């Protein structure tokens, strides 16, 4: 009996099915048995990781703007760790971009300020030196606030970029600067604020109240000028005009939009049965202030232009009043001057004053 030679076609078909199955089986066994590393076993040191993260943040927010309403960058930073010399403000709520705490000695800050304010190097600060230094810091603060306003406005006005900032745009920026992810910001429930710390929720409520005060044309959006009133009310021309109107309402008894010395110095209030009561307390001081700080051209009357100069934070009267208040509170030996020792004996007073933290001092007033 003759054996039939195998059909080559049948052999090829059998191997065409077997080879792939065998290949997958071998590959599976190899992966199962051999510990093949999926990534390098070398671990980066904390410093290396920090360096990588720092480089990733290099082009984000290359300028720092101190906001009046929202301290974006420092939820967890202790108050004593917020001392930095940035753009003329020694005390700012600032994060250096990588969540590191910055430690600056408050005593060193006060020593530095004292040295710079002591013009005649007699190791004493009189009222004039104090006043000049405070006014310098006020002017620096106002200049930076106004100069940065447009840049920050353009940064927040992004979705859509239409020349106004909506509350949603501002709130998104607020959360991102607090370190929340874009996904969280996108899905954030503004009514419940789920996942936010109580202090952040309270800040949002304060921001919302300040927003409603600044939004004159539309309660849901802010224009460029309104945004300045929102972030830096002391720098806003609109707020200055409002203050002037309040002065007219309070003092301009004949309604001619001109304040006389008598109207400014002699106060009147309504008594019983609609009777007007004249108050002459501090009349001499108010007459002196009118002549020195209000009536600039000396004609005995103050118009709107003069009153705008009077209420503006750059007016010398603000720095003079601040200097007088600091002297009254810290001048222990009553020589009408402040020594470094007297300043260091009242650190909280000076660290929160316009002498050091000009921005926060102004914003506390507003």
From TrEMBL:
It comes from Photinus pyralis. GO terms for cellular component: endoplasmic reticulum. PROSITE patterns: EF_HAND_1, EF_HAND_2. GO terms for biological process: calcium-ion regulated exocytosis. Residues 105-140, 239-274 form the EF-hand domain. InterPro entries: EF-hand-dom_pair, EF_Hand_1_Ca_BS, EF_hand_dom. One of its GO terms (molecular function) is calcium ion binding. Keywords: Calcium, Membrane, Metal-binding, Repeat, Transmembrane, Transmembrane helix. Pfam families: EF-hand_5. This is EF-hand domain-containing protein. The lineage of its organism: Eukaryota, Metazoa, Ecdysozoa, Arthropoda, Hexapoda. The chain crosses the membrane at residues 15-34.
